[in-house]
Design a protein that fits this description.
Layout: H1 3-25, H2 28-54
Length: about 70
């Protein structure tokens, strides 16, 4: 087996992995979990808005630099 044949096998392997990843990511089984993950950022915004309305968190206060 020469270097050109090895490069051909590696190229085919990479192409096959790419096709497998694309098919996996667009499968209907994964759609609901990907939608949940995509919408999770909006749930975090709702939680943050509730925290601001009720009370301020200690971590959310801005620190000042008094060493100037």
């Amino acid at each position: 087996m020469d270097y050109g044949t090895l490069r051909g096998f590696v190229a085919l392997l990479i192409l096959a992995l790419f096709i497998i990843i694309v098919v996996w990511s667009y499968s209907k089984k994964r759609k609901s979990s990907f939608d949940d993950i995509a919408n999770s950022i909006f749930e975090e915004d709702k939680i943050a808005a509730k925290n601001k309305q009720g009370h301020l968190d200690k971590d959310s206060k801005q620190e000042t630099n008094n060493n100037v």
